[in-house]
Amino acid sequence: MFSMLRINTASCTAQMETFDAKEFLLGGRTLSSYLVSSEVPATCDALGKKNKLFFCSGVLSGTAVSSSDRLSIGGKSPLTGGIKESNAGGIVGTRMSQQGLRCITLEDAPPGDAGWKIIVIGSEKTEFVDGGFLAGKGVYEKSALLTQQFGVKAGCITIGPTAEKLLSATGIACSDPHGVCSRYAGRGGLGAVMASKKIIAMVILNDGKIKPAFVDEDAFKAGAKKIVQLLKENPVSTLFTKYGTAAMVDICQALKVLPTQNFRHGVMEGAEKINAQTMYDTIKQRDGEGRTQHACMHPCAIQCSNVYPDKDGRLLCSPVEYETMALMGSNLCLKDLDAIATLNRIANDAGVDTLDVGAAIGVAMEAGIAEFGDTTAAIALMEEVRALTPLGRILASGCKTAARVLGVRHAPHVLGQAIPAYEPRGSKGMAMTYLSTPMGADHTFGFTLRDEEVPTSKEGKVALSKKFQVIGSRMDAMGMCNFVRYSVRNNMQPLLDLIQFRYGVDITEVEFDDMVKKTLRIEHQFNTDAGITAQDYRFTETFYEEVQPETGEVMDITDEESALARKW
Amino acid sequence: MFSMLRINTASCTAQMETFDAKEFLLGGRTLSSYLVSSEVPATCDALGKKNKLFFCSGVLSGTAVSSSDRLSIGGKSPLTGGIKESNAGGIVGTRMSQQGLRCITLEDAPPGDAGWKIIVIGSEKTEFVDGGFLAGKGVYEKSALLTQQFGVKAGCITIGPTAEKLLSATGIACSDPHGVCSRYAGRGGLGAVMASKKIIAMVILNDGKIKPAFVDEDAFKAGAKKIVQLLKENPVSTLFTKYGTAAMVDICQALKVLPTQNFRHGVMEGAEKINAQTMYDTIKQRDGEGRTQHACMHPCAIQCSNVYPDKDGRLLCSPVEYETMALMGSNLCLKDLDAIATLNRIANDAGVDTLDVGAAIGVAMEAGIAEFGDTTAAIALMEEVRALTPLGRILASGCKTAARVLGVRHAPHVLGQAIPAYEPRGSKGMAMTYLSTPMGADHTFGFTLRDEEVPTSKEGKVALSKKFQVIGSRMDAMGMCNFVRYSVRNNMQPLLDLIQFRYGVDITEVEFDDMVKKTLRIEHQFNTDAGITAQDYRFTETFYEEVQPETGEVMDITDEESALARKW
Description:
- The structure is a homodimer.
- Chain A contains 22 helices and 17 strands.
- Chain A is α+β, with helices and mostly antiparallel strands.
- The first copy, chain A, has a domain at 3-204: 4-Layer Sandwich (Aldehyde Ferredoxin Oxidoreductase,  A, domain 1).
- The longest helix of chain A has 21 residues, at 509-529.
- Chain A has a six-stranded mixed beta sheet.
- The radius of gyration of chain A is 22 Å and the shape is globular.
- The two termini of chain A are 31 Å apart.
- In chain A, helix 6 packs antiparallel against helix 19, helix 12 (354-366) runs parallel beside helix 15 (399-406) and helix 17 crosses helix 20.
- In chain A, a hairpin with a 4-residue loop joins strand 1 (3-8) and strand 2.
- Chain A binds chain B through residues 42-45, 47-50, 112, 165-168, 192, 389-391, 393-394, 397, 401, 404-409, 529-531, 533-536, 538, 540-542, 545, and chain B through 42-45, 47-50, 112, 165-168, 192, 389-391, 393-394, 397, 401, 404-409, 529-531, 533-536, 538, 540-542, 545.
């Protein structure tokens, strides 16, 4: 049996609920979206007391299966106005499972002038303690204060000063294995939702003793080994093991979809200065605290994370991922990994989504606030974000709002969420996915890029996007890392076997996919109920009118086509 | 026959078109909304080349009928994302009629980096002249430079520096009879639309010789006199003649709907310091350039405008209207007419809507950016708007965006447009109107306040709002000043007679109202096509949850009720 800890943030009370049996397969995004859809009025103010925040662990969380402990956080998004699930690595999912928790729910809200609280969840009790001492501090300092008080092995969740101000592009930071809140559920503004409930941090103590039960433990152990073997045999996950997601720089540059100069271009001259090899060599050469092949959770056989060190070998930022390298690098015409890592660090400290704020800085540069390629100016802009100046607040409100306030028409977003690191005119498959997700432009659940024969053509891309929407969503539904999908995309039986050995439930791939599709349907229905229409699933008009020079392409996907890709 | 001058802003060409006979009754908002609906794709970027801007004169424009020369400006709104008509007094409507123009259309757009142009329309030709010398200048300076070049009697239309930056709460300023561009079509961001077409000013020269033709000129003259007589007999218009719209301060204070402290209250202690009598006495006492009973156009028998002088009797701002006195006065807890007039002047110079930016400053004060009641701080904030600082741009983006960027949930707007000067929880009739207009919260077309037996009750307010939506829209449809409606609300035959004597068209009140209702239907259809849904016609959640202290009321109008008030 699994439990939900339901916490009322107005009355500062908590109560345990148990799931009924037929829902016990729910985990990750499947669970969070089910709960958002069931419990949150679609038209409510995302920053009001009717919104809820659900922290959900995965179906195989707490077991020895590689990469199975992602934490899914769900609620209504203040950024898009629609449903949101954003997930993070780190150790919080494991700690929740050790406390027997499949879900923690934050609901209601105290008055806006109420004091900040920390929720401390242990095996004995759930406590609300004063969190005023954390207010206004950066995430790194908050993180240090939390581990000092609650131990380095506690699962901590916190938000940055930008979220405290209810800004829309703010995320939720979760503990990594070193006790640093650096694993972000970054997208969609869920940090502001947590802040609206006056919860500045949540701590799951390391005193949980609950171990997962198995129907057939030996078979499960063998099945878990099989997953490791599959990951180690797969060329994509092994590429990520060595280089991390930075491997995408060269791939995207070659495909002419590397976002450059506020998504005006798909190729950056000098991209090799920020590619995977340069990063790898830099980390190895500087040594010190630098790490490649670094795990964000245990166990993980991929270990795509890294620790990027400064010139003296001291940790500058961990991790530095491709999406950030593109949005805060090539998109700003920056060709300097140290600058990118610095921007990333400040963003993490400020508590913002590196994608949406990177895109916002691109917009600001197009508005003439700073020059493209100017690392000093870019860092100064991120310092404004951290300092919460008016300009900083504009940027921390995300790309769409920044574009509105700075008078820029070419704003890379769909549904108010910044486009990730694949220029959509150059990859019509990725474009179709951006136009299809209920979450706003997103790449994790319908990643077509590696499978497009002619990326610039929209032919067949409805079907291709839908295929990968399902493949990606399977991982979200299980609460597994998205990168496992490469190993099981043609045959997910090894994962279904694990469900069988763990729960005694025999579920076929078709049945599992039906569940995934049902989740997509309820997510889209939530958006419809929230007042989001087909007209909102669009790029800005500039993408349709202006040619991306390297591919000679404009956006040519019609409303009718993208509607098909959202129909389940 | 009437003509439209259709101007392509990309090719810098103009051509004359004539209306076909059956449409010749169209004028004002009826014409502009018909054209927007027919020619602008509802989902287009309001700041892109597919949007158009229509400048329409009224059905009786150019005649001797009092208050008949309002200029209706229509297009898709960058503020609301829906259809927009905003109208202004001044002399431009007259000048258009003298050139035989019922409509001037600006369409297409040059590239964003194209130079600024001034369009000069004379009886001989239409010219595009370089407007670079106006760029970045305030509206008062632009206005002076335009009259210097084109004569004090030319009908000039220009925008402020905020509009040049494409900000969403910017208006279009039109010449008053003294050659000052101080008559604003302020609402909905049409200034930014004009800027997006790189037109910094438009001038209709005073060389037009076309006089209106009449079927029965003598009868028309007699009918025009009848209108004057009705206006002079009506208690509301005569009240406005003496005191101007400032008369509303005491009325709204008494009804507890005077927006105070960011719409948290409906009563301001000390409101008498900014009421009509104080304003009247101040103007009379300072004398000099100060004026009460001042006309924004000729002829006008109401003359509700004023010239507010500074302490030395020099013009500080003209006009200072109730809506501004509330949004930039009581709403900010300012009890100082000089401060309000100063804010108004800076807003006019910057080119912004005083309502939306007043509401945005209220939001900024709630966010703690400045203290309520601090006149110096309020003026400093308006100076930031004029100086286009980041904070100034936030404010010039209007109340909704300011609330988002500054993290304030209580944002007084509907459909993204700031609520005008009547607190909606205290007047459910006005609230119903705000929730019903296709234009975003607006008071000019469904003004119930004077006719609500129990303002705090929603009973019967669907019907009441709809009644006044029609009464108000009749004036918009004719291009007449809204204040004429008091004199003809129970019997519009005197206006219909004028149509008969002017055009020989016999139209009944029922037929006229059918035309008005058809306009409302096409406006709402445009919004639906643009992706605006029933869920968008709402106040922020705070209005439904938090009691307005003076009335003890929350917002209690349901989606179903407001939907009825939008159904025609």
